[in-house]
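Q: My labmate handed me this sequence with no annotations at all. I'd like to see what the chain might look like in three dimensions before we decide whether it's worth expressing. Could you predict it?
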Amino acid sequence: MKRRVRAGETLVGGLLRMPGEFLVELAGVAGLDYVVIDCEHGPADLVALQHHLTAAQAHGLPVLVRVGQDDPGLVLRVLDLGAAGIIVPHVDTPEDARRAVAAAHYPPLGERGFATYSRAGRFGAASIPGHLRDTADRTLVVVMAETPGPATTPPPSSPSTASTRSWSVPPTCRWRWA
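A: Here is what I predict for the chain of 178 residues:
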């Protein structure tokens, strides 16, 4: 998904709340490019989320999970469960954006704790170098500036920002992939 976004491809997705494994499967069968599961405004039950991610994976459907504001522990668990990326709301400063990226990436790109025995590491079957490479290549971080000031002045890119940014401006919710 990250490569497709960077290539400028237009992707079509859906926003879902849990529980909704059936809807995830329907999205995959319907040919959507991705789904977003909202764990900020909906339940953040990790067992239920794993079921949703499993349903999506069966259909080759990437999942972005909207997490709560500045919650590195949830970011780690969501990505370890196999999400393609995260959406982080309330990112109002460049430092907020840096923290979001750091939470989602392993060192040296970030500060995420490392494990291959998670679902994302194929329960230990992924090699350490392969897992590090694959997660750096595919983990997508979308940050949302939800106040007008930051939305009109995105934070500068940095070498550690190996992610895609999105900006939302209430009430129009314009999205720009960069």
